[in-house]
Write a structure and sequence with these properties.
This protein has one helix and five strands. It is of the alpha+beta class. It has a single domain, classed as Roll (SH3 type barrels), CATH 2.30.30. It is elongated and about 45 Å long.
């Protein structure tokens, strides 16, 4: 199963961005998003180090709520 992680862009340098989610920061490639205007503060879906889709803050929060529920269910069942 593939999983994309919603992250918020903190800074952009060319085709690279510093992104953060849940207190973790990562360098993310923006190469696949060349046609999309992006700025610090925007949310993107990140898959294997690449931003693949711009998303709203609400979409990012909804995704994290689902991920948190899955992790809680897994921890409770183990």
């Amino acid at each position: 199963m593939c999983l994309g992680i919603p992250m918020q862009i903190a800074a952009i340098d060319g085709f690279n961005a510093r992104c953060a989610a849940k207190g973790v920061e990562r360098d993310v490639s923006l190469f696949l998003m060349q046609g999309e205007p992006l700025a610090a503060g925007d949310f993107v879906m990140v898959h294997v180090g690449y931003a693949i889709q711009k998303m709203s803050e609400q979409e990012a929060r909804s995704a994290w709520e689902l991920y948190d529920e899955m992790l809680a269910a897994e921890a409770g069942g183990a």
